[in-house]
Write a structure and sequence with these properties.
Shape: globular
Structural class: alpha/beta
Helix content: 55-70%
Largest sheet: 5 strands, parallel
Strand content: 5-15%
Number of helices: 13
Order of helices and strands: HHHHHHHHEHEHEHEHEH
């Protein structure tokens, strides 16, 4: 399955220049507007050169502006959830089960696509070298942080998590340069989570973020950003759907660490 135009922008966002981020923000915020405009009109509105817009399109994987615009337009004509997968009142239990499962599968597939190997590798590197790892999340994300703690203590890494946001700030304030803070926030704009992140950064600790929005404050401030991608339906919010992706990312990180630890032990035995 190919990445959508929006997913490509989100994937490349952290590495974009300030001018390129300006274009990315414009597309992410008003995708319906850009498909009706020429490259000259976009460049003029953003006070940029046509060549800058063209290079941005090439940067995210398109031959040029027209190719990107066509891709974006075609995606906007297709609902995120196809009509035969929308849950309706007439659906029986088995049909609803099938549709929920298919939505979860699509969420995991999209999340896999938007995360680059370089980001995963860097996250594993930070986690494996950490003295301890603290997981932070508020609201629904607090449960994900707690699940991460349970998984990570099995890897041999010192890990912890707490559900109370006040205790989380206290915990973050006691981190050191040898520690890693993992902040989980679907929107990446949660004030409590942002406060925790800023507190952790103030100690010099390394930071990893798990969010769905690349241009969010958390997505831009962390040392390594990992992204989730999920669908919204009438009966399930996007944030609720993203939890399956968050759990999958945590699973992948913990398994990577267990494999890495096993390789280290094998080398020591030789």
């Amino acid at each position: 399955m190919k990445n959508s135009c929006i997913e490509k922008i989100q994937t490349h966002y952290p590495k974009l220049s300030e001018k390129e981020k300006k274009i990315a923000n414009y597309i992410l915020e008003t995708p319906d507007k850009i498909i009706h405009r020429t490259i000259n009109e976009v460049a003029e509105e953003l006070n940029l050169a046509d060549a800058t817009v063209f290079r941005f399109c090439k940067r995210i994987g398109y031959k040029g502006y027209q190719a990107m615009k066509i891709a974006l337009a075609s995606e906007m004509t297709i609902p995120v959830i196809s009509s035969h997968e929308e849950i309706i009142h007439e659906d029986n239990e088995k049909t609803i089960l099938e549709k929920v499962f298919k939505s979860n599968i699509r969420t995991i597939e999209h999340t896999f696509q938007v995360n680059e190997n370089e980001s995963i590798h860097r996250a594993i590197e930070l986690l494996s070298n950490a003295n301890r790892v603290e997981f932070y999340g508020t609201g629904g994300s607090a449960v994900i942080a707690l699940d991460a703690y349970y998984k990570f203590i099995q890897t041999g890494i010192k890990a912890s998590a707490t559900l109370d946001s006040h205790f989380q700030v206290m915990s973050a304030s006691q981190l050191t340069k040898e520690d890693v803070a993992v902040v989980i926030s679907h929107t990446g704009t949660n004030k409590d989570s942002l406060n925790i992140l800023n507190t952790a950064r103030g100690t010099g600790a390394k930071t990893i973020g798990i969010t769905s929005v690349a241009k969010s404050p958390i997505g831009q401030k962390v040392d390594v950003a990992l992204y989730t991608s999920s669908d919204r339906t009438e009966y399930r919010s996007e944030s609720l759907a993203s939890r399956i992706a968050q759990l999958s990312l945590i699973d992948a990180l913990s398994v990577n660490l267990m494999v890495l630890n096993e390789k280290v032990l094998m080398k020591e035995d030789i």
